[in-house]
């Protein structure tokens, strides 16, 4: 049904979704690509092109129906389905994600947490039980698991990721500080926080150098 | 000194840095762009082009000196300087970041945490004190702050970001679920976890549809 859409377009979709949610919260039910363009700081032509990838949604001179567009983009992003999630590695980041309730509003339901630490196993976070990693195969046999979140040290991540693939889990949200080598049919989305921080650091240093070379804090 | 380098190239630099660190840890002190290309799953030509942006580092037929390249990329990324960081919003995500010690190894030092919750103010995490947000102006006057991390609800983020800019903080690592409207000379790096999860969800749904339309689980 869908033609191939570039990942660059897809990367912009959650942002549209976020802005449309804000419009709904403000009680705005119709918006032109020009008005949306001002809010989102992208060109109206980009907006029209992006949304045309999915069949448009807009009518010339009439604007977009915000609720309709919001719902349709939600469907495109798979937010009309429930996604069952497990988190492997219940350290600081794993706990933070487990405590974050907003994911559930979007249909991402955490059904189990896993760790190797005996002090954690058997306890729970927000009612979500923490199991031993050894119980993973049995858990996956008994529950539908759509996404596994890897929040564990990099030296354990590869081995666990391979185990997950063997257990037929095909989507991984990877917070471990490495790139996973997995079969092509496994969907991986990386969150490399250190990389993000280094990117910030680069831009700080670059700005400092520009200011120094221009001699004044102009602009 | 530096010519303008595209953000796409810069985005790849932390990844080079990560792989070079691994090579060093494995005791490898010299590597060709071809060998690096196999490890990193990018073309050797891309590697040569990327590194040429910074003056090369390589010698034809001789490969890259791993330690030298690692150090130089570290400098490019500003990792040879200390960056003082404050975290505003000491909820789940703020606490997870405050507890994460690896940032300090790269020169990112957390010097203060801030919150509005009286139950947290006055306590500390890993020895880093938690202050009231009201103490921000005084704190920033008395300490050099290079980066502010925003880990607070989106309805508070904009106001705090504006305050930070007024206090002359020009780099923000933004985890709040919105785009900040700030002057152009403020460097912002966003970590939108929900966007990342939606991207993953899109790719899961897309893969399912492809498998269904192909009729078999072929690959």
Question: Would you give an account of this structure?
Answer:
Two copies of one chain form a homodimer. Chain A is an alpha/beta fold. Chain A is 46% helix and 18% strand. The first copy, chain A, contains nine helices and ten strands. Chain A has helices spanning 7-25, 33-40, 44-52, 66-76, 92-99, 102-105, 136-142, 154-166, 193-214, and strands at residues 30-31, 58-59, 63-65, 83-88, 108-115, 124-125, 128-132, 147-150, 171-174, 187-190. Chain A has a seven-stranded mixed sheet with strand order 6-7-5-4-8-9-10. Chain A has a three-stranded antiparallel sheet with strand order 1-3-2. In chain A, α8 (154-166) links the parallel β8 (147-150) and β9. The longest helix of chain A is centred in the C-terminal third of the chain and has 22 residues, at 193-214. The model of chain A has no long low-confidence stretch (mean pLDDT 90).
How many β-strand runs of chain A?
10
In what order do the strands lie side by side in the largest sheet of chain A?
Answer: 6-7-5-4-8-9-10
Oligomer: homodimer
Q: What is the molecular shape of chain A?
A: globular
Provide the gyration radius of chain A in Å.
Answer: 21 Å
> Could you state the order of secondary-structure elements of chain A as H and E?
HEHHEEHEHHEEEHEHEEH
Mean pLDDT of chain A: 90
State which percent range the strand residues of chain A make up: 15-25%
Largest sheet of chain A: 7 strands, mixed
Instruction: Give the proportion of residues in helices of chain A.
Output: 40-55%
Spatial gap, N to C terminus of chain A: 49 Å
Number of helices of chain A: 9
